[in-house]
Amino acid sequence: MNIEIALEPLISSLATYIWPFVRIGAFVMVMPVVGSSFVPTRVRLLVALALTVVIAPVIPHSATTDVLSAAGLATVAQEIAIGATMGFLVQLVFDAIALGGQVIGMSMGLGFAVFLDRARGVNIPVLGQLFMLLGMLVFLSLDGHLALIKLLARSFWAMPISEAGMTGELLGQVLSFTGQLFVFAMKIALPAVTAILIVNLAFGVMSRAAPTLNLFAIGFPVTMLLGFAVIFLSMDVLMLNVRQFIGEAIQAVSVWLDLGRV
Questions:
Q1: How many other β-carbons are positioned within 10 Å of the β-carbon of residue 244?
Q2: In this predicted model, what pLDDT tens digit does every residue of 109-152 receive, in sequence order?
Q3: Which end of the chain has less neighbouring CB within 10 Å, N or C?
Q4: What CA–CA distance (Å, rounded) separates 115 from 38?
């Protein structure tokens, strides 16, 4: 007795979940917090599968391309690009926060105090790591992860699954927002860096007035203590800036989806 299994209906039914899974998987691998390298890959895959099971049945399915064809590979590439871009736009905020902390740490003389950033697998100054952890806590407290999941589901209506998703105009918008990374970092680092610069200028005047003064023995601890004091006093402003940056990033993703609406 021969049992024949029709693969075509099976592949067709699986395509209902395969295409959304590609976009959702790329998004989960890049998004803040969940996409960090300290989260095991299996956990991220389970999160992507869970989101796919929830989102896939309620979204429009316009792609009828064979998964194993050349057009199917092009569609996969488009879905990966869309999902990764959405996560990347928000991840830029956390890179800006870490960059601002690194600039402050270098100004305070803490550039040698590095810590392994398990989110990226590289060494960054401890202040950059501290600022990034604070940013993640603010992100979770604002339900930013839920807002991103909502935008992810909305993206399937704004950019249906097809071979043509990313355009030059959309890439230009991504590059334009990337430039905001340095603006965000400057806003975070400016209070502490300005205070430390004023102290360094004061020490320069003191060195001219008292050449025998050992500035290396006095300047380093004073600069470090002042830096910590400024960070402590400006923590409320830092949290407000982080909230603003996260809101702008989520808004940028929403605008990007509206721009790519077909």
A1: 13
A2: 776 666 666 556 566 777 878 888 888 888 888 888 888 888 88
A3: N
A4: 14
Please list the residues that pair with 123 across neighbouring strands. Answer: 116
User: Which token pair is 42?
Assistant: 């299996």
Q: Indicate left, alpha or beta for 109 from its phi (over 0: left) and psi (-120 to 50: alpha).
A: left
Give which of 102, 97, 240 is closest to 181, Cα–Cα: 97
Q: Where are the domains of the chain?
A: 7-259
Given a contact cutoff of 8 angstroms between Cβ atoms, the answer to whether 148 and 250 are in contact is yes
Q: Name which of 140, 162, 145, 176 is nearest 256 in CA terms.
A: 176
Burial letters 107-116, b for 16+ CB under 10 A, else e: bbebeeebee
Buried b / exposed e over 199-210, threshold 16 CB at 10 Å, is: beeebeeeeeee
- How many angstroms separate the Cα of 118 from the Cα of each of 30, 36, 38, 70, 133? 14, 7, 5, 37, 11
Q: CA 43 to CA 45: how far, in whole Å?
A: 5
pLDDT, tens digit, for every residue of 59-83?
776 555 666 667 777 788 888 888 8
